[in-house]
Amino acid sequence: MLMAHPVVLRDLIGQYETLRALNAQDGGEEAQRRLADVSYTLCVVTGTRDADAALIAARHQLPGARVTDDSVLTAPPAPLA
Hints:
Distance between the termini: 41 Å
Largest sheet: none
Radius of gyration: 14 Å
Number of strands: 0
Oligomer: single chain
Helix content: 55-70%
C-alpha cells in the first residue's frame, strides 16, 4: 500500500482542523468547498471513506504515532450534554 509523505499528512491534518475550527461547514461556498476538498484528499491518501476515519488513520501514519493504541476507536461515546 502506498503511504502519503508525513509532511503531506501533517499539512492536510492542519488544514482540516483549521477549517473545522473556523466552522467552514457553515461558512460560505468557498470555505465549504475547501473543507470538502481537504476531507476528500484525506480519505484518498488514507484509504478511508469518511473524514473522521481519515483523520484518525492519518495521525496513525505519522512518525512516532502509537499505532497499537486504538482507544479512540473503541472508547465509549461521550454523554450528550
